[in-house]
Every structure is written in C-alpha cells, then in structure tokens.
Amino acid sequence: MNARYDLVLRGGEMIDPAQRVRGRFDVAISKGKVAAVAPSLPADAGGFNVDVKGMLVVPGLVDIHTHFYNKVMLLGCDPDTSFLPVGVTTSVDAGSSGWRTWAGLRDFVIANSRTRLYAFIHLSGVGLLPPELTDLSQVQVEETAECIAADRDVIVGIKLRVTSPGGTGEANAIPALEKARETADRAGSRIITHVGRSPIPLAQVVERLKPGDIVTHTFHGFTNTILDERGRVRREMVEARSRGVLFDVGHANVWFDAPIARAAIEQGFMPDTLSTDYTSQERTAGRTRYMITLLDVMSTFLALGMPLDRVISAVTDRPAAAIGKGGQFGSLKVGMPADIAVLELADRPVTYRDNNGQPVEAGRTFQHVITLREGAKVA
Ligand SMILES: [Zn+2]
Fold first, then answer.
1. In order of start, what are the domains of the chain with their CATH numbers?
2. How much is the pTM?
3. Which of 6, 20, 276, 337 has the greatest number of beta carbons closer than 10 A?
4. CA of 133 to the centre of ligand 1 (A)
5. Digit-coded pLDDT (tens) for 74-86
6. Residue 358 · residue 259 · CB < 8 Å
7. C-alpha angle with apex 310: 40 to 334, nearest 5 degrees?
8. How far away, in angstroms, is 319 Cα from ligand 1 center?
9. 252 CA to centre of ligand 1 in angstroms
10. How many A from CA of 302 to the centre of ligand 1?
C-alpha cells in the first residue's frame, strides 16, 4: 500500500521548546516538511521508518555565532562539513564580511551550501580584517545600512568587536558602538557585539544596546567580565536582560571561563543562546585553542546546571527568534521545514577545559546520530 509519509522517526524522545512539547512521539516527514507528530503513527504510515527509541529528536540545531567565509577570511570554515555532521542545520556568520565583501559570502558560500545560512555583517566595510575598527575610516554607515536593506532576508544584523588589542581598541570602543547603533537604527536591524577582552566596562556597552541586540562571549574571563568584585552578575547585565538584550555564549574555548559561567548560572543568569564561534579547524591546529562543536557547548552547559529543555531551547527556537526568524525553523511544529537532529544523551563522560584549563566534568554528553535537512538525510 502507499505510505502516507516519506519517513517516520519512531519512538524517540521529542523535545520541541517552541511548542513546550516533550515526550515520546513519532515524527512523520513528507516533501521536506514535518507532516505529523503523534504518540503512535500506524506501522505502515512511513515509506521509510527509522527506530530512534532512546534517542532525542529535536529541531535542527541553530548556531548564531560562527565564521564560514571559507577561503576568504583566514579562519573561515567550510559550513557543510563543519555543521551538518553535528546536527547543526542553521548557522550564522558573525561579521566575517562587511558591506564591501558581502556579495562574495552571499554568492560563493551561502548560495552554494546545504546548511541554512545567514550573516551578521561587520561594521567595518571589509569585515573581520585588520585594522578593523581601530581605524573608523573603515566604517561607512550609509553603505552598510543599504547593504542590509538590500539583503534583509539573509543579513540579520551588524557585528562589532569591542576588544583590545584589535577590534575597536580602547579609544574607539564607544565611538564604534555609537556608529553601530546609528547603522542598526537606520537599517531597522540589530547589533551583535563581541565583549571578550573588552577595554571598557560592560555597563558602557549594554547601555548602548536596545531590546533584541545581542552580547556575545558573555562568559569570557579577561578584563571587564559580567561579574563584579563580589562575584555577582553585574546589576547592569541583569537590567539589560530585563529590557530584552540577549546574552550569547560564543564559546571558542578562548571566550569561556568555567568559574564565571558557573557563578552566573548559579545566580540564575543563563545564556539565551549557546553558540560556538566556530572557525576552521585545520588552520588552528597546533595552537592551544581547540575547536569545540555545538554539541560540546550543549554538554558543557548541561553539566553547569542548565536544564535539558533550556539547553535545547538555546540551540533551537531561541536563536531562531534572536535573528528574527522565529516560526520559520527551530521547531518541529507540523508544516515546519523538516530540519531535525537526532541525538543521543549518552553516559559518555568528558572533561572539558576552559581557557585557563579549569575543568567542567560532563557526565552525560550529546552525541550525534542523524541530521535531516528539509527531510533529506545529510549526516
Ligand atoms: Zn566570532
């Protein structure tokens, strides 16, 4: 007989924070979309049936801080081979290109990848290249705003790096934030700002951010962290969050300090989104920095006490909403694109190390099983 659906994932533990649904469900897929979700679909409903009992079935993962201007930016990774094998079906480049170099990222990388890709463009016209924002003649507010307006479906905001050395440096930190503000307001878009190794107190950064803007590298451990002298999350961070400013991880190992993250989470200050700041592995080999996948970041924050549903939300519906794409992906609601990650939460302990070598002991870690992109198995 004719199967009603192309594929049914049977008996997995589905977690879909967007719908506040968690439990054992069969998930049916047809024509690249989620076609049905039910506790038990008829045995002959699927053309293909995959038994995923004991596994997690979650929306395809969304990583909103990566660098995939492959072969142009020095550390740009290849998106499909970096993301799909770990369940990431949507990824956002954080400022590798600026308005002058954007067309190449769009036409050579984004248009030719299986992964669903978006980008923040850099406030500096040439992207993430020296002199970056230590020279503000790199900034053209009008051209950047026009670039965003012309590709509004793919460009989801403006990136700047409030950092020193490099980035804005100290002298240009506030002027650059003000230029970013002006550009974002003119384009009707959002800011994502790097705060790792910030040369200015974070209070001076967040006071220039509006609801929907994003702070990345929230748990970095260099100068000007989110904690005050008493180890409390700074009042200004809590206030910024309550006005709708979002806090992202941007892990990359170098921007992750385990004691700071642990303290913040104990105080209830959990990240809105988990992300990797993923770059190319090959070219970083031999350096102390090692690449960490989104599954590693999820395992780390689960070990730090973030509840499972909240971890899944921070890599599915929350990042989708954070880039203005809520309701388009990041959920397994019927009719959504069948971007799906099948994962195992295995008793496979890993000791993760932060930038200072401090350990996070993860007893249970996320392991990849299957990635579907619009219903097709891609990893
Ligand atoms: Zn980055």
1. 5-58+333-348+363-377 (2.30.40.10), 60-322 (3.20.20.140)
2. 0.97
3. 276
4. 15
5. 789 999 999 999 9
6. yes
7. 35
8. 16
9. 8
10. 22
